[in-house]
């Protein structure tokens, strides 16, 4: 099935090439583009990407078309980023954590307790000065950032262990996103990090390869982790945004008007996403509690904040992220 899809996407890519190169001779022919991502179609991010598609097609009066492949059909986040680099797909939505291997600046988002509150985080992520500081850092790697989508607050969840303070995490086999900073984060909390792609987490929890993971509430419901992990702890250790990225050559080949449609559709879909996200997280919590038997716990957050201080300090000193770090701090974060 995956091979068939990849072949299909390759043919579509050829079509994109054809339609863009024959642009002047057949102006009426739509430009077809492909977006692949790893969440199920019930997930709020998928719904917001559908908003992006519909807004784009509406604004361009059908001149730009977008086909979305959800559910990791095209591969893991890393694989689809690589497909975006080679223009096998034109867009993908990935966690900022997955971009760390392509531009170190993105590692900053995995810094524990970077943002003071979710409101601040949202406000900052929408500022053009912040977007400019991150989105073009991958242009030499074949893609650029287009917009961000709130991916919530990341919290710990376990199969069996009850966590009240950071001490309770000692030796806990915890899945992390495949990024250096995510590994460092769990190490600094005394756990044993196990990097793996998101699609593998359910089975790894079920088979006991890992005992814990960390993510927003929808991981319990949309991704079904609540079937195997019954304890969710509000450590609130990070807010790692999702980033919509696009192949840079495809972007540059578009007319200014077409680029504007993309930017506007992206910005509007980001705004629609925020209230949807809040509503969906509330629903996820209710479903997890009432239908899946998951218990939600408050923890002694200060013990977690204390343990990650050295990691936070290493970010403050890191040349590769200093400019972006200072910009984020300047946005009223250190009030
Ligand atoms: C979030 C994020 C995904 C990512 C996942 C993960 O759910 O939205 O893009 O894959 O975290 O932990 O890997």
UniProtKB/TrEMBL annotation:
InterPro entries cross-referenced by the UniProt entry: DctP_fam, TRAP_DctP, TRAP_DctP_sf
Annotated CDD domains: PBP2_TRAP_SBP_like_3
Keyword Signal carried by entry: yes
Keyword set includes Aminoacyl-tRNA synthetase: no
Listed PROSITE patterns: PROKAR_LIPOPROTEIN
Secretion signal, residue range per the UniProt entry: 1-27
Origin: domain of life: Bacteria
Key words, A-Z: Signal
NCBIfam families (UniProt xref): dctP, TRAP_S1
Record protein name field: TRAP transporter substrate-binding protein
Organism from which the protein derives: Oceanobacillus kimchii
